[in-house]
Write a structure and sequence with these properties.
alpha/beta, 7-stranded mixed beta sheet, Maf protein, 7 helices
Length: 205
């Protein structure tokens, strides 16, 4: 059974590989801002599920009958003080966020959408949203500046990672730690099994 990852996220790819799954990765090419704008106001959980679904469906539509297996889309957002934070993109935005969130706790939401595309046809999908509470260390200004200078926090939701350079700046996580990486393995296993497929059927490494 082949899994197609509708994402170019190195963290999601590494997570799947560590779990014994070598997916085929395809960039979904989704304009996330446009999708969210068209939907109007959304709560964080609804937003990440919508974007995960849009990515999975974009790959299903663009590659059609060439895919025989499962297609997984994912999206993440970080919420603190009731404000949703996606990828900061700019150093000054990342620094402002870190100045606000250091020493505090926020919630990371990860949306997942899995399409049953066996036989080259779309047989429907299922979505799951998971979340985890993330508490940051009271990092110094110098640490924040050094971290931002690496470029890593510019391209991830909430401007942080736990599986790379940002790991030492996280004090604790309550919930599934893989959620913070952007892909909950327990959630994915349940989604796969909802299609009558065993998780172990995806092992190919």
């Amino acid at each position: 059974m082949r899994l197609v990852l509708a994402s170019t996220s190195p963290a999601r790819l590494a997570t799947l590989r560590a779990a014994g799954v070598e997916p085929l990765t395809i960039s979904p090419g989704v304009d996330e801002d446009a999708v969210v704008a068209a939907a109007g106001h959304l709560e964080p959980a609804a937003m990440v599920e919508l974007l995960a679904r849009a990515k999975a469906e974009a790959v299903a539509e663009s590659h059609g009958s060439t895919i025989d297996g499962l297609i997984l889309g994912g999206d993440s957002a970080f919420v603190i003080d009731g404000i949703i934070h996606g990828k900061p993109h700019l150093p000054e935005v990342a620094r402002e966020r870190w100045m606000r969130q250091r020493g505090r706790t926020g919630v990371l939401y990860s949306g997942h959408w899995l399409i049953d595309h066996r036989g080259g046809g779309n047989h429907g999908g299922v979505g799951v949203v998971t979340h985890a509470d993330v508490t940051f260390a009271d990092v110094t200004d110098a640490e924040i500046d050094a971290y931002i200078a690496t470029g890593e926090p510019l391209h991830v939701a909430g401007a942080f990672t736990i599986d790379s350079l940002g790991g030492p700046f996280i004090e604790s996580i309550i919930g599934d730690p893989h959620t913070v990486v952007g892909l909950s393995l327990p959630a994915l296993r349940n989604m796969v099994r909802s299609f009558g497929i065993e998780w172990t059927d995806l092992w190919n490494r």
